[in-house]
Amino acid sequence: MVKRIGWIAAAVITSTLAAFLFLAAGLTGQQAASPQAPKQMVPDNPSEHTPPAQPIPYSHKKHLSLGLDCKDCHANPEPGKLMTFPEASKCMLCHVTISRDKVSIQKLAEYAKSKQAIPWIRVYAVLPGVTWNHRVHLEAGVTCETCHG
Questions:
Q1: Least crowded by CB within 10 Å, which of 18, 38, 82, 143?
Q2: Is the four-CA dihedral 71, 77, 81, 84 of positive or negative sign?
Q3: What DSSP designation does 142 have?
Q4: Largest CA distance in the chain
């Protein structure tokens, strides 16, 4: 009878130890797994997009670093869907004196003088079936740089 109790005790201890090791291994495995990043609503562009050649070289980064703000040049008229491109005459408010000897600024001055719109090549386009409104995003505190760099 004593041997039987010993075997039962050994079986209980072995079973308990096995269950403990099994649970510990499971918890360790769960902790080692890296948390998954939240899914993106819109996936990153898989390829680098080379911007098209424009009629006049222009750098948003350079102008913003000089203290200009997006709304200094781009208006958002009703109903708020699109941002406008500035007329060449608006650019010439500064460039009548700044960098006026550069070939690109002289070309800009020609557009302003002729009152002809600069034929910018569109870089961003809203896809068919997508409803877009810049104003809704601006009023929600989304900055231009969030999407446009």
A1: 38
A2: negative
A3: -
A4: 112
> What is residue 87's three-state secondary structure?
coil
Eight-state DSSP code of residue 26? H
Q: In the numeric block, which tokens belong to residue 77?
A: 């008229």
Domain ranges of the chain: 60-148
Identity at 57, one-letter amino acid code: P
Q: Give how far the C-alpha of residue 90 lies from the chain's centroid of Cα atoms, to the nearest Å.
A: 28
Q: ω into residue 79 within 30 of 0, thus cis? A: yes
- Prediction pTM value: 0.60
Q: Exposed e or buried b for every residue in 119-128, given b needs 16+ CB within 10 A?
A: eeeeeeeeee
Dist. CA 111–CA 107, nearest whole Å? 7
Q: What token pair was written down for 116? A: 């002809």
Indicate if the pLDDT at residue 29 is higher than 80: no
